[in-house]
């Protein structure tokens, strides 16, 4: 029966687009490429000099091999490039205040319009020696490379390339090679105004897809399983021309003896559970579009016969989850580390009698993106390294957390698990496309412009 219903879901999926005329515009692949390349040019002109000067690094060298790409270099490639080519070397050089950052490549091909190659293979057949000669000619005081013990996203240079670089550099310049961790993280985490104008629509797309999946359009209580819904989401993402940066999950909390601890939530979640009236559903869902990612967790309640809304005890539990969100975002202050934000939030939750667990992370070019980690579900005392990184303005974060609430009617504790993408401008936090403040219900009438 489940297989028959899954086939039925695929048949009706094309109708959902027609029934939701307010779904945000989805760009063609050509239009997407134009947007990505325009954003990249803007970022090189604005973000790049800011993060290099903030980190006091006057030359940044990024080296990657085809199919073994540095995470940073993938964000600097033209939209029409799917990967690096041969050995790709990108260089950003800062001639000093008042002068524009110089960008060029030391590769066989131009890397788009921004990193045009200066290597003439006919004059200098050795690519690595050509790189060393260029570095000597620019005479930088600090040569930053993507090497980091703490951040995987800033640790992109391979050990082979590191050895080759050090072997070819004169001793004087070997001593100037430094960790460019803060440049890499700054580049990845900083969001521009142009990106944020579009990010709202990207998050709205994710919200609307979640709402479609958590509706009677997809779920028939007593027949549909959690796995059916998961795969409906995967198919829906693909039909719309997006990709998923992780496999969605759908789980159930209900009036049964089963506990819902963190291990069950994150790694031992059962699949193929049939959905019944009275169930509290939870989804974890994210899409990738225009090189930006979303990450959202929301809830829906399956109405019992005669019910028109979720029970009051679930509504009250949901309010506690929203309150934990408010406490967390109120502690976002420029310069505070992730661990400082975590401690302040948990202390305030405890003082208000809330059982909050915080595991918030940056969002952007990656799902679990560059920037400060604010707790992990199993590290509520702080996260060494990633949690010690400070919060900067113009960064986006997935406000991810849960509130444990004991439900007397069910005789057990449940978890209101929430995640919404937000933007920090240096003073305030705003949800990029709002946040859920109530539990969706199934069945319900799904209005064309409804998200919750």
Write a short abstract of this structure:
By secondary structure, the protein is α+β, with helices and mostly antiparallel strands. It is built from eleven helices and 16 strands.
Describe the structure.
The chain is an alpha+beta fold. The protein has 2 domains: 2-16 and 191-442, Creatinase/methionine aminopeptidase superfamily (Creatine Amidinohydrolase, Alpha-Beta Complex); 56-179, Creatine Amidinohydrolase, Chain A, domain 1, CATH 3.40.350. It contains 11 helices and 16 strands. The strands form 4 sheets. The chain has a 5-stranded mixed beta sheet with strand order 3-2-1-4-5. Helix 1 packs across helix 8, helix 2 (29-54) crosses helix 6 (181-189) and helix 10 (312-330) packs across helix 11. The protein is elongated, with a radius of gyration of 24 Å. The model is unreliable at 1-18 (pLDDT under 50).
Descriptive labels:
disordered N terminus, 16 strands, 452 residues, Creatine Amidinohydrolase, 34% helix, five-stranded antiparallel β-sheet, five-stranded mixed β-sheet
Which helices and strands, and how do they pair?
Layout: H1 2-19, H2 29-54, E1 59-65, E2 87-93, E3 102-105, H3 127-138, E4 143-145, H4 159-168, H5 171-174, E5 177-179, H6 181-189, H7 193-213, H8 226-239, E6 249-253, H9 262-266, E7 280-285, E8 288-289, E9 292-293, E10 296-302, H10 312-330, H11 338-351, E11 355-358, E12 361-362, E13 395-407, E14 412-424, E15 429-431, E16 440-442
Parallel strand pairs: 1-4, 4-5, 10-16
Antiparallel strand pairs: 1-2, 2-3, 6-7, 7-10, 8-9, 11-13, 12-13, 13-14, 14-15
Helix pairs in contact: 1-8, 2-6, 10-11
């Amino acid at each position: 029966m489940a297989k028959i219903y899954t086939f039925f879901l695929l048949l009706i999926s094309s109708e959902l687009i027609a029934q939701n005329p307010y779904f945000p515009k989805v760009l063609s692949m050509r239009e997407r490429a134009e947007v990505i390349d325009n954003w990249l040019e803007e970022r090189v002109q604005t973000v790049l000099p800011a993060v290099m000067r903030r980190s006091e690094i006057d030359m940044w060298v990024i080296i990657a091999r085809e199919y073994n790409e540095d995470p940073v270099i993938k964000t600097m490639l033209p939209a029409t490039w799917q990967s690096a080519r041969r050995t790709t070397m990108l260089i950003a050089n800062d001639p000093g205040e008042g002068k524009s950052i110089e960008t060029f490549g030391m590769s066989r091909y131009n890397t788009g319009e921004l990193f045009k190659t200066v290597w003439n293979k006919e004059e200098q057949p050795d690519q690595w020696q050509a790189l060393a000669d260029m570095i000597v000619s620019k005479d930088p005081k600090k040569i930053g490379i993507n090497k980091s013990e703490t951040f995987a996203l800033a640790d992109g240079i391979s050990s082979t390339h590191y050895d080759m670089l050090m072997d070819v550099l004169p001793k004087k310049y070997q001593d100037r090679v430094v960790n460019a961790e803060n440049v890499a993280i700054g580049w990845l985490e900083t969001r521009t105004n142009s990106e944020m104008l579009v990010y709202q629509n990207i998050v709205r797309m994710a919200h609307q897809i979640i709402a479609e999946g958590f509706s009677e359009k997809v779920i028939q209580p007593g027949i549909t399983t959690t796995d059916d819904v998961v795969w409906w989401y995967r198919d829906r993402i693909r039909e719309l021309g997006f990709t998923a940066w992780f496999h969605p999950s759908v789980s159930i909390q209900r009036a049964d003896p089963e506990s819902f601890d963190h291990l069950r939530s994150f790694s031992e979640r059962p699949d193929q559970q049939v959905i019944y009236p009275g169930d509290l559903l939870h989804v974890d869902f994210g899409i990738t579009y225009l090189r930006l990612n979303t990450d959202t967790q929301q809830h829906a309640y399956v109405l019992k016969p005669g019910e028109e809304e979720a029970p009051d005890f679930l509504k009250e539990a949901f309010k506690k989850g929203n309150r934990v969100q408010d406490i967390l975002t109120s502690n976002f202050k420029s310069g505070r580390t992730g661990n400082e934000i975590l401690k302040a939030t948990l202390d305030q939750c405890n003082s208000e009698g809330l059982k909050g667990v915080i595991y918030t992370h940056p969002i952007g070019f990656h799902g679990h993106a560059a920037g400060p980690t604010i707790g992990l579900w199993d590290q509520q005392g702080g996260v060494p390294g990633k949690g010690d990184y400070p919060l900067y303005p113009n960064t986006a974060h997935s406000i991810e957390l849960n509130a444990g609430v004991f439900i007397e009617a069910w005789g057990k504790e449940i978890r209101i698990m929430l995640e919404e993408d937000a933007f920090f401008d240096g003073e305030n936090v705003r949800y990029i496309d709002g946040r859920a403040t109530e539990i969706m219900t199934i069945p319900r009438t799904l209005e064309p412009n409804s998200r919750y």
